[in-house]
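hiii so um. not sure if this is the right channel but i have a protein structure encoded as tokens and i wanna go backwards to a sequence. like what aa goes where. can anyone help
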């Protein structure tokens, strides 16, 4: 979540927030030319000899067979891998294939086929092996659909000079329509319009986000390597609960958390550590001898509850060595990955800021945000002790979550940090801002010198812009350039390269880079993207109806090609009408509705949804 409000309160007394005007697009589109693969294609977790391929089939059938191909050319004249897989309602008709037998450091093209229709063609690549001179990544986090346009995804997709996209969490947000992040656009609203709580809700939210053309295009062009943060389930979450979860009204936390995790693994091209395991996220991916990318989970595996904000440094919980952020099991694994890495750079994909962020406003030293590593100082010290005691060099943390841009040294708590020389720093940290999630306009004017009064290890901070981090890695240095968008409230935007900092090989602190990152040729041409919106056949398209079997309610996600009255009816097997609900929708686009069946007897029923003279029907089973 955005914690920059804390800095607002501590570092500046009053800065007026500027009013904004907004363009109003139509509701999310469904492109009929993509049928039945309306959500596009994606790839992820590339290894030297394999990569995950992903798609989703929109179908009325309970199960469907899907063909896949991966080739070295866009014409698929040289197919190097192919097969047929089956998907069904238990996986929300998502498809994941681990395409093996590939050549290291190579680009490939892939596609799927179902119902005699091909998907869009995706482009992906494998990780290199051995001697590797150069790598480049786009690093992103915090993409809130109802906070603005996904210009960041569009900019990354069209630049065509990176190897992969690193998404550090908050791929979507659980909040209700017109809730957190809502920017005044009355049509770019979360679907479903209530807070996501159930597996059906999380699936719908994933579906809505992947109908966004810019996100779909970015997935189509590059492999993604992802980790979750809190909003994939609920704000400020931890192992046994969350700030944004009330058990008395929202049910069992572990049921909700498991639902969010399950939908995440279904809808993203992420490789399970073992078949069907959607619990463990931490993993390491090797990119030749240049970089080991170590992705950790600071949210769900071993985190104790957060302490809140403005925590006095004397708070007893801050000195409690039994409190954990990643937990003993993951910590042991993490230390082993650092110890065993043969790569020059150890890059850590991490959700929350690890560098300290403290203030003293006359009442003593205070931790600004206990949701970050600051709230778990003993855990942070265990990590930094291991790095320093074992002389592990070239450790770089990549971080999201905070919705603004930071470049930090990471002082060891037992050292005396020297701002001029970097002495006392154990590692460095590049923090990317958000794709769309709110910052505070006007705070960009807060001088760095004011932040450094309390936190001298902060080398760069920009507090008001959205964008991404362009991370370039070679044998001499890791350089991060902060690319910011001029706007996310219009699809007409300008990207600017606003800051450049680097970590030189053998050093543990940031230096200002001498220049911006220039062009990096060598990628093959981008794959074609379908931009025309066609009318969906039959005027109504059902994108999801679940769960089935159901107990209390049936959630339906549908698309209208024109405004219409929408009727939802349920009949029993004798044809008797047992439920009716009518809604007048005044725009075309994506919608959701729920049919409540808790009062019905157990058994089989037919759910029908009608619009513009067309009717879709599906048999469901009511349990209990």
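sure thing!! here u go:
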């Amino acid at each position: 979540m955005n914690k920059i409000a804390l800095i607002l309160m501590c570092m500046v007394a009053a800065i007026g927030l500027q009013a904004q005007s907004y363009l109003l697009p139509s509701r999310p589109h469904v492109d009929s030319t993509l049928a039945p693969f309306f959500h596009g294609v994606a790839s992820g977790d590339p290894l030297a000899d394999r990569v995950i391929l992903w798609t989703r089939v929109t179908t009325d059938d309970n199960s469907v067979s899907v063909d896949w191909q991966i080739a070295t050319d866009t014409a698929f004249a040289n197919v190097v891998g192919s097969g047929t897989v089956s998907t069904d309602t238990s996986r929300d008709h998502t498809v994941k294939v681990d395409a093996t037998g590939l050549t290291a450091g190579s680009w490939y093209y892939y596609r799927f086929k179902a119902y005699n229709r091909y998907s869009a063609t995706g482009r992906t690549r494998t990780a290199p092996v051995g001697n590797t001179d150069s790598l480049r990544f786009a690093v992103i986090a915090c993409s809130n659909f109802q906070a603005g346009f996904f210009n960041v995804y569009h900019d990354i997709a069209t630049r065509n000079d990176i190897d992969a996209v690193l998404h550090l969490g908050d791929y979507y947000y659980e909040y209700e329509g017109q809730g957190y992040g809502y920017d005044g656009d009355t049509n770019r609203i979360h679907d479903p319009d209530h807070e996501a709580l159930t597996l059906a809700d999380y699936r719908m939210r994933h579906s809505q986000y992947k109908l966004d053309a810019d996100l779909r295009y970015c997935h189509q062009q590059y492999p993604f390597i992802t980790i979750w943060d809190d909003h994939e389930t609920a704000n400020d979450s931890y192992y046994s609960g969350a700030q944004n979860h009330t058990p008395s009204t929202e049910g069992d936390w572990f049921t909700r958390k498991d639902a969010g995790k399950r939908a995440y693994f279904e809808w993203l091209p992420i490789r399970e550590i073992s078949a069907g395991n959607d619990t463990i996220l931490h993993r390491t991916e090797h990119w030749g001898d240049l970089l080991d990318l170590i992705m950790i989970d600071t949210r769900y595996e071993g985190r104790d509850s957060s302490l809140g904000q403005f925590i006095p440094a004397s708070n007893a919980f801050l000195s409690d060595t039994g409190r954990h952020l990643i937990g003993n099991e993951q910590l042991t694994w993490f230390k082993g990955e650092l110890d065993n890495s043969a790569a020059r750079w150890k890059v850590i994909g991490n959700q929350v800021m690890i560098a300290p962020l403290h203030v003293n406003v006359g009442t003593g030293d205070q931790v600004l945000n206990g949701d970050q590593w600051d709230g778990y100082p003993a855990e942070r010290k265990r990590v930094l002790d291991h790095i320093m005691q074992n002389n592990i060099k070239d450790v770089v943390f990549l971080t999201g979550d905070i919705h603004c841009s930071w470049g930090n040294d990471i002082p060891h708590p037992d050292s005396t940090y020297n701002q001029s020389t970097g002495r006392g720093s154990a590692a460095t940290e590049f923090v990317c801002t958000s794709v769309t999630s709110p910052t505070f306009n006007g705070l960009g004017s807060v001088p760095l010198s004011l932040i450094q009064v309390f936190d001298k290890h902060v080398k760069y901070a920009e507090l008001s812009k959205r964008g991404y981090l362009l991370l370039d890695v070679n044998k001499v240095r890791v350089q991060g350039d902060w690319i910011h968008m001029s706007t996310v409230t219009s699809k007409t935007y300008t990207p600017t390269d606003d800051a450049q900092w680097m970590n030189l090989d053998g050093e543990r602190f940031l230096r200002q880079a001498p220049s911006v990152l220039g062009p990096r040729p060598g990628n093959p041409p981008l794959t074609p993207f379908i931009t025309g919106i066609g009318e969906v056949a039959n005027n109504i398209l059902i994108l999801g109806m679940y769960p089935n079997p159901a107990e209390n309610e049936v959630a339906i996600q549908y698309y209208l090609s024109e405004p219409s009255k929408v009727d939802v009816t349920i009949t029993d097997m004798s044809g008797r009408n047992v439920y009716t609900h009518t809604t007048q929708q005044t725009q075309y686009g994506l919608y959701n509705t729920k049919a409540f069946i808790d009062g019905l007897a157990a058994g089989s029923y037919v759910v029908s949804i009608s619009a513009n003279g067309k009717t879709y029907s599906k048999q469901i089973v009511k349990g209990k």
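oh and Residues 4-25 have pLDDT under 50 and may be disordered.
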